[in-house]
Design goal:
The complex is a heterodimer of chains A (269) and B (333).
Chain A (H helix, E strand, L loop, with lengths): L1 H18 L1 H29 L3 E2 L2 E2 H18 L3 H11 L2 H5 L5 H31 L8 H31 L3 H14 L11 H7 L3 H5 L1 H8 L9 H28 L8
Antiparallel strand pairs in A: 1-2
Helix pairs in contact in A: 1-6, 2-3, 3-6, 3-11, 4-7, 7-11, 7-12
Chain B lengths: L4 E14 L3 H10 L2 E15 L4 E5 L6 H9 L6 E6 L8 H7 E5 L11 H11 L4 H14 L3 H4 L8 H13 L5 E5 L7 H18 L2 E5 L3 H7 L2 E6 L2 E7 H7 L3 E8 L3 H11 L5 E3 L4 E6 L5 H11 L2 E8 L2 H11 L3
Parallel strand pairs in B: 3-7, 3-8, 5-6, 6-7
Antiparallel strand pairs in B: 1-2, 1-4, 8-9, 10-12, 10-13, 11-12
Helix pairs in contact in B: 7-8
Classes of the chains: A mainly alpha (269), B alpha/beta (333).
């Protein structure tokens, strides 16, 4: 069976992730510290604004948005660029290339086990805490179904972007700068660091059309959607928008990889 | 039967950036770059039959790894043809992958944090090995080496020897037609080397797997290969039986003697008396490489005995290591 070929990688990823208990603990703590910083930063912003509602979002709206964005980030961040760069530098990539699986898929599924563990250990707890603390900020209804669909596509778009950037490492043979640049751009333009509602009107109208918005902003809007405030066709438009970028980025990253592979010269001939 | 690997006039060229020297040079490199074409493999041809073990030898940087990478499909040859099991490797990389197994001595394809058996299960699913074949293979492994204690040990806790052994087993797991072993015994102790050689030999015999072995260890070659291919600076120097090579150099023997007095000084004196044979000295022995076509060893010894007090002597057949060293240095005429 074909699927088994991939799911076995997921399974191994879960086992692998569970081997490192300390790493999980450290990550949860680091996550917590970041959230504290976010809390005080935005508290100060709202205090200096002098009003309760800034750009149509209250303090608790913003906070819920950013907390969930962080949780989503932890869940979706795949360190693909880092992984590709490192295996290029060490030459390990040869061993991956001579597996009877397409490299792009191999890498994705190798990482997919972490999705499961991250979902259970960081996203779900954060979600439950936020839902309980704010009672009512998160509507529990059909929006969760939309959210689930949106996350699946967000993961795919995020991976395609990562893979595209990772492929650049074939040419530069350096990782750090590229990775940081990618991270900053994605996090900023996707609304993970500052809600897109806070962007200047003109910039926002552009950014909302980019694939980055489809990664964090769309799923989060579904999550915070109360199930009534949107026009009936709007959720479907958002999903279509995601699907569009999902396909475009997938095709782009595949083509770029294919073209790049022809150029590959692996270290230590 | 058609040969399993066919290589015809394969050449691989790399473009290498030539950097200028110094600070000013580095600045100029930012704007204009000079590329130099390096020919890593230069019209190499060979055919390899199913079930052979071929030793692929050459000094560092000779182009061995490049050839292997071309056979695995990671690199595309600049010109020439490669057929591996009927496939063009770089065009059908995924299909080719099913037919080959690879071990690189310095890196591992195993999952670092997982017990070995998990890596095996992963490979079973990735290569889609039927359960029956998988179990048979494990049984075969168990009969060849005692893998039971290794199976449940995480790879990161293994010694280098255990890890290499596991990597070799992993490469053979999907019963590939060809296995490439790139310096499999590097850094291992003598007993582990012997164990790994026995294993490779047994797997080759049991499964009729073709093995391409690159190594710098002549022990590997002597123990495993009937045929060797030697490459240097991208060019093929030799492709034939190992015995043929030995017979080619067979008339050479090394006479080792120990005499009174400083060995270095005495060696120079002897060299003066025997100008036709190279004489070298180390801490223990003075070695004289005698060409028996020119003079019998016994005559040389007699000549030396008249003027030196020889305390000890021994005679060595030339080893393939010396032969290959000679080829590296002078080439086959």
């Amino acid at each position: 069976m074909k699927l088994k070929k991939y799911l076995t990688l997921t399974r191994a990823g879960i086992i692998e992730a569970l081997q490192f208990r300390l790493a999980t603990v450290v990550m949860v703590i680091g996550n917590l510290l970041y959230l504290i910083v976010v809390y005080f930063l935005w508290k100060a912003i709202y205090a200096s604004a002098g009003t309760d509602v800034v750009n149509g979002m209250t303090f608790s709206d913003t906070l819920v948005y950013l907390v969930l964005a962080t949780a989503l980030f932890n869940f979706m961040e795949m360190y693909t660029v880092w992984e590709i760069g490192r295996s290029i530098q060490s030459g390990k990539i040869i061993l991956d290339l001579i597996k009877p699986i397409e490299y792009r898929k191999y890498l994705f599924w190798s990482y997919s086990g972490t999705f499961v563990t991250q979902f259970l250990f960081t996203f779900l707890p954060t979600f439950i805490v936020v839902a309980a603390v704010t009672h009512g900020a998160i509507h529990l209804g059909v929006n969760l179904l939309f959210f689930a669909a949106a996350v699946v596509m967000a993961v795919s778009i995020n991976y395609s972007i990562d893979f595209l950037v990772g492929t650049v490492c074939l040419f530069t043979e350096s990782i750090w700068g590229i990775n940081i640049m990618k991270q900053v751009i994605v996090l900023l333009l996707s609304g993970a660091t500052i809600p897109l509602a806070f962007f200047p009107e003109k910039l926002r109208s552009v950014v909302e059309l980019l694939p980055f918005a489809a990664i964090y902003d769309v799923p989060l809007r579904f999550l915070l959607w109360d199930g009534i405030s949107m026009e009936p066709q709007e959720p479907w438009c958002m999903l279509l928008f995601q699907l569009f970028w999902c396909l475009v980025m997938m095709i782009l990253s595949k083509l770029f990889w294919k073209a790049s592979l022809r150029q590959i010269t692996v270290n230590g001939g | 039967m058609a040969p399993i690997i066919e290589i015809r006039n394969v050449t691989k060229e790399f473009k290498v950036l030539e950097r200028r020297e110094g600070l000013w040079g580095s600045v100029r490199d930012l704007f204009s770059r000079n590329y130099k074409t390096v020919r890593a493999v230069d019209s190499v041809s060979m055919t390899i039959e199913q079930g052979e073990i071929v030793g692929y030898l050459g000094p560092n940087g000779a182009g061995k790894s490049t050839t292997i990478k071309m056979m695995t499909g990671v690199l595309e040859p600049t010109s020439g043809q490669i057929l591996v099991g009927g496939n063009i490797p770089y065009k059908n990389r995924t299909k080719n992958a099913q037919e080959i197994g690879v071990v690189f001595g310095q890196r591992s394809q195993l999952w670092w944090a997982l017990p070995l058996v998990e890596s095996f299960k992963l490979l079973r699913d990735i290569y889609q090995i039927p359960e029956k074949n998988y179990q048979e293979m494990l049984a075969l492994y168990q009969s060849l080496v005692d893998i039971e204690p290794l199976l449940h040990k995480p790879v990161r806790q293994m010694s280098l020897g255990q890890r290499t052994l596991s990597d070799i087993l992993a490469a053979f797991l999907h019963d590939p037609k060809i296995v490439f072993l790139d310096e499999p015994t590097i850094g291992l102790d003598v007993s582990m080397k012997a164990k790994i050689r026995t294993l490779i030999h047994a797997l080759n015999r049991e499964k009729k797997t073709t093995v391409i072995l690159t190594t710098h260890d002549m022990g590997d070659v002597d123990a495993l290969c009937r045929r060797i291919v030697i490459i240097d600076k991208g060019k093929m120097l030799y492709d034939n039986d190992i015995d043929h090579l030995k017979s080619f150099f067979g008339s050479y023997r090394t006479l080792k003697i120990r005499v009174e007095g400083g060995l270095k000084a005495q060696a120079e004196k002897i060299q003066g008396e025997l100008p036709e044979f190279p004489v070298t000295a180390d801490d223990e022995w003075i070695s004289i490489l005698v060409d028996e076509d020119k003079a019998k060893v016994i005559d040389v010894l007699g000549k030396l005995q008249s003027s030196y007090e020889i305390r000890d002597m021994k005679l060595e057949e030339i080893s393939s290591e010396d032969v290959i060293k000679k080829i590296y240095e002078e080439g086959v005429q």
